[in-house]
Write a structure and sequence with these properties.
Chain lengths: ~400, ~80
C-alpha cells in the first residue's frame, strides 16, 4: 500500500491517538515562545532528547520560564501541515517542592487579592441536606470515611458520587468537570470535595487555580476537606466551609440525627409549656369577663326589683285613699302593670342575649373541646402542680361529669 | 437533568415551621382558638420530624461527568 503524504500523516495521527493516547512526560522547559494571540510553544528536553510541545495560551495557568522542570499531561500527534511531531499539552505541573511552594504562594496571594478567600463571599450550608454531592476517588480512604460518617449521623439521604482522580495527571480536569456536572444537573444541595493526606506534590490538584475557580463558581455550597489538619490547600481557602479532614467534612455537612431528635423533643416540650401558659391566660380572661358580665346583669335586675317594690307600695297607698274611688283605679293600675311588664320583657330579652354570650365564653364550652378543670380540696381551680402534695384529694371536671382522685 | 425530587414532606421546612411556632408562643400573645390550632400543628410536625429521624437509609448515585472536548488546531 502506498500512502499519499496527507494520508500518511493522518494515518499516524490516528494511530497515535488510538494506541498511545494520553501520556505524562517530564523534562526541562526550553525555547518558550508565544505565537499569535492564542498559542504557546516550548520544547521539553532532557540530556538525550527534546520534543516540541504546544497548548492554548488560555490553558496556561502558571508562568513558564526556560530551565524550569515540569511534568506535562499530553497527547502525542503530528501537525497536519508540516507533519512535525509534537505533544499537545493538556496540563502542566511543576516538579520539585521548591517550585511548587513558590507557585502555591503566588496563586494564594493572587486569589486573596481578588477577594476569593473573604468570609463575606462564603455561603452557609443547608441545615438538613438530603442530597450530598461527593467529589473524590472511589479508591481513596476518604470515600469510605465520608460514607461511613454520613451513614452513622444522617437520616435518610442520597450521596451523589462523582468519581475523580485526586492526584496526578487528569485530576484537575476531573475535579473541575465533577463540580460543573453536579451544578449543571443540580444534583445536590451541598458538595464535599475531599481526599486524604499525602505529600505536597500529591495535593497539587487542590492547589490549582482551575479547581479553586470551579469551587468559587459552584452555585451549590462546597465543603473542602483535604489532607490532614495541618495541610492548607488553595481549595480549602476558597471553600464555603473548610473541613480539616474527610471525616470532618462529613460531620460538618450532616447534622447528627440523634442530636436532631433531642432538638425536636426539646421544641415540643417548650411548645407544651408555652401553649399551656397561653391557654391558662385565655381561661383567666374568660373568668374575669364572666365576673364583669355578672356584675353588669345584677344592676338592672336590682333596679327592676326596686321599682316593682315601690310600685306595689304606691298602689297599696293609693287604693287606700278615699279619692281612689273617683279615679279609674283599675285602669291606672292596669296601665302601670302593662308598662312594667313590657319593661321586664325587654330586660328578659337582654338577659337572654347576654346569656348566649356567656355561654360562648363559658368554661363549659372550653371543656367541651376536651380540656378539663381540676379543683383542690377547697374547690379552687388548680394552676400549679407544685401546690399539691402526695395524698391530696382533687376533683377534675370534664365536659361531662366529674371525678375525684388522690395525688400519688 | 436530575432534578432534586419533590417530596411530600420537606424536613427543613417542617423543622423551621416548628421552630417558628414555638417562637411565636414564646414571644406573642396568642388567641385561644388560633393557639390551639398552632399547638396541634406543632405537635404534628414534631411527630413527623421524629419519624423522619428514625429513617436511616443511605443511597448512592454515581454520576457521569462530561468533559470538554476542545481540540484547537495549532501549528507553528
Amino acid at each position: 500500500m502506498i500512502f499519499s503524504v496527507s494520508e500518511f500523516v493522518d494515518y499516524l495521527r490516528e494511530h497515535l491517538r488510538t494506541t498511545v493516547g494520553e501520556v505524562e512526560v517530564k523534562g526541562e522547559v526550553s525555547g518558550f515562545r508565544e505565537r499569535g494571540d492564542s498559542l504557546v510553544f516550548f520544547d521539553l528536553k532532557d540530556e538525550g532528547s527534546a520534543v516540541t510541545c504546544f497548548l492554548m495560551k488560555w490553558e496556561l495557568k502558571q508562568e513558564l520560564a526556560d530551565g524550569e522542570e515540569i511534568r506535562v499531561l499530553a497527547t502525542p500527534s503530528l501537525f497536519k501541515k508540516s507533519g512535525k511531531f509534537h505533544l499537545r499539552v493538556k496540563e502542566i505541573a511543576l516538579v520539585g517542592e521548591g517550585a511548587l511552594a513558590q507557585a502555591f504562594l503566588k496563586l494564594k496571594s493572587k486569589l486573596e487579592q481578588e477577594g476569593l478567600f473573604d468570609e463575606a463571599r462564603k455561603r452557609p450550608l443547608p441545615r438538613f441536606p438530603e442530597r450530598i454531592g461527593l467529589v473524590t476517588s472511589a479508591d481513596a480512604a476518604a470515600y469510605t470515611d465520608v460514607l461511613t460518617i454520613l451513614k452513622d449521623r444522617s437520616r435518610q439521604h442520597t450521596v451523589v458520587f462523582a468519581p475523580v482522580r485526586v492526584q496526578g495527571a487528569g485530576s484537575v480536569r476531573d475535579i473541575v468537570a465533577a463540580l460543573r456536572t453536579l451544578n449543571e444537573q443540580r444534583a445536590a444541595e451541598v458538595i464535599i470535595v475531599t481526599r486524604g493526606g499525602g505529600s505536597f506534590e500529591d495535593l497539587q490538584s487542590f492547589n490549582s487555580e482551575d479547581v479553586a475557580r470551579a469551587i468559587v463558581a459552584s452555585r451549590i455550597p462546597v465543603v473542602v476537606g483535604v489532607g490532614h489538619e495541618r495541610d492548607t490547600s488553595i481549595a480549602d481557602l476558597v471553600a464555603d466551609v473548610r473541613a480539616t479532614t474527610p471525616t470532618n467534612a462529613a460531620q460538618l455537612v450532616a447534622p447528627d440525627r440523634r442530636e436532631l431528635l433531642l432538638a425536636v423533643t426539646e421544641l415540643s416540650r417548650r411548645l407544651g409549656v408555652e401553649a399551656d401558659a397561653s391557654l391558662r391566660s385565655a381561661s383567666d380572661r374568660v373568668g374575669s369577663s364572666l365576673d364583669r358580665m355578672q356584675r353588669a346583669l345584677q344592676q338592672p335586675i336590682d333596679r327592676i326589683e326596686q321599682l316593682l317594690g315601690s310600685f306595689r307600695a304606691a298602689a297599696v297607698g293609693f287604693a287606700a285613699t278615699p279619692r281612689a274611688r273617683h279615679v279609674a283605679v283599675d285602669h291606672a293600675a292596669a296601665t302601670l302593670t302593662e308598662r312594667m311588664r313590657r319593661r321586664s320583657q325587654e330586660q328578659v330579652q337582654r338577659l337572654a342575649h347576654i346569656g348566649k354570650l356567656l355561654h360562648a365564653l363559658s368554661p363549659n364550652a372550653v371543656l367541651a373541646r376536651g380540656f378539663s378543670l381540676t379543683f383542690d380540696g377547697q374547690g379552687k381551680i388548680l394552676h400549679d402542680a407544685k401546690a399539691l402534695a402526695t395524698g391530696d384529694h382533687v376533683r377534675t371536671r370534664l365536659s361531662k361529669g366529674e371525678f375525684d382522685s388522690a395525688v400519688l | 437533568m436530575t432534578q432534586v425530587p419533590k417530596r411530600d414532606f420537606h424536613f427543613t421546612k417542617a423543622f423551621e415551621e416548628l421552630e417558628a411556632i414555638v417562637k411565636e408562643f414564646e414571644s406573642e400573645h396568642i388567641d385561644l382558638d388560633e393557639g390551639l390550632k398552632k399547638f396541634e400543628r406543632g405537635l404534628a410536625l414534631a411527630k413527623q420530624l421524629k419519624a423522619k429521624l428514625q429513617d436511616v437509609e443511605q443511597k448512592i448515585e454515581t454520576i457521569k461527568q462530561k468533559f470538554d472536548s476542545d481540540e484547537p488546531k495549532g501549528e507553528e
